[in-house]
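Budget justification note: compute hours in this period were largely spent on complex prediction jobs such as the one shown. Inputs:
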Amino acid sequence: MAALLDHYFAMGGYAVYVWPAYAIAVAVLGGVAVQSWWRYRASVRALERVQRQLEPKP
Amino acid sequence: MISRLANPAQFMRVSGAVLPFLAGLAAVVLAVGLVWALVLAPPDYQQGESVRIMFIHVPAAWMALSVYLLMAVASAVALVWRHPLADVAAQAAAPIGAAFTFVCLATGSLWGRPMWGTWWVWDARLTSVLVLFFLYLGYIALVNAFDDASRGARAGALLAVVGVINLPIIKFSVDWWNTLHQPASVFRLGGPTIYISMLLPLLAMALGFALLFAALWLVRMRTALNERKLRALRLHRMAEPRSRPADAAPPGARPAVH
Amino acid sequence: MAGFVGLVRRDVRLALRQSGEIGLAIGFFVLAVALFPFGVGPEPELLRRIGAGIVWVAALLAAVSSIDRLFAADFADGGLDLMALSALPLEATVVAKCTAHWLTTGLPLTLVSPALAVLVDVPPRDMPVLVFSLLIGTPALSLVGAIGAALTLGARRPGILSALVVLPLCVPPLIFGAGAVEADLTGGGSSAQLLLLGAFSVAAAVLAPLAAAAALRAALD
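Corresponding output:
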């Protein structure tokens, strides 16, 4: 099993090219996704805060 | 449909409902595509396992180009009809498109190393994508270079339209330059004969990238609309008459705004 | 038409009076070309091989380096508002300003280019093609540059920004212009490259004023 995995991760000798390529894709696109999401959450929270301040007092 | 969505409030409602499904679908398709590309797809008889880089390189190239076209269409709509959402749409798409373009370049370099023996070859396709990356950077820099956001939006919209008119000329000139300067026998990225066993994972990854783009695009558009609304509310608050005693009260204890 | 010519004359006269303008562009051009041998080594074979490219890249940078000033002064003192209101269409104003810019940068660069070509060992028989390619190519640089200049009016750091915006758009004229000289150098005909370069300049002359005028209107709003 371990040998099989080793064989797989070696990528026929191209491991140093294939894995970094996928790692860069995941890092860059994942980075954009995370940054987009954080900024979205921040905008939603800020909007809620301001709108709460603007609501009439009960 | 489009004109109904065009109203920002309507857009927020519809996009909010669509977003979870879109994001979930993108995650599922990308997971399937990754397993297919990394495990199930057979190695190429010439390039061996290195062909697996193609499954991200080529869809990233497709996305790089189509997102730029989409940006240009949205910009044209913004210029002609002054549509409030079109600018937002174009600006939200740009960083995602630039990210795909960067992924295309980086994976192209990593694929080129074993194929060409060097990290970078001024291959026609890669060079065109590099110029496209510069166009994205110029657009993003221009949009953010103004204190007045609407001025940046219009400058950016014009640049996107100018860029898309120039794009075929750049592509043609680079292809032409390349044929003059390089022997035709050089292996071109994305060039191997595609068999169905490779085409299917390629299309799965392309669909995954497109869904990921769509989800991130909606998220960024929603963010931009939220931030715009936030700015308007804050301006509104600042514009209130100063003489009101409540203004001295701490935030949170504010009276209603009429 | 009188307004057009008057504008060209005014801008050329302004550039001549601020005597630095033309000299600066030429100085930048000379220096940029002269730096290359220090960077790549003085071997004549190498310089001859890349000389046309060096001259073209340096001319491109020299023409674009000052482009953000094209509308800046008139924008700052309100002159641009008057031009927008005048009988002359804004597109024609753009063409006039580009003409003046070309007369004070592109044309002088073209005229001094043979001297620089000697420095990088471009053979004399290729000089006519080099000069001709710069003559028909540099107007395109002024025109495309005008788009960048108009777009970056009122921006933070307009100089570096307009270069970032304009340079990618200038890839085709660079390829055709430098390619024409190289084709001549290696014995192939250069007419195809020159035709394409001319076509690019003509297209730029038609389309760039439209885009630049639209950008000016956005800046004046």
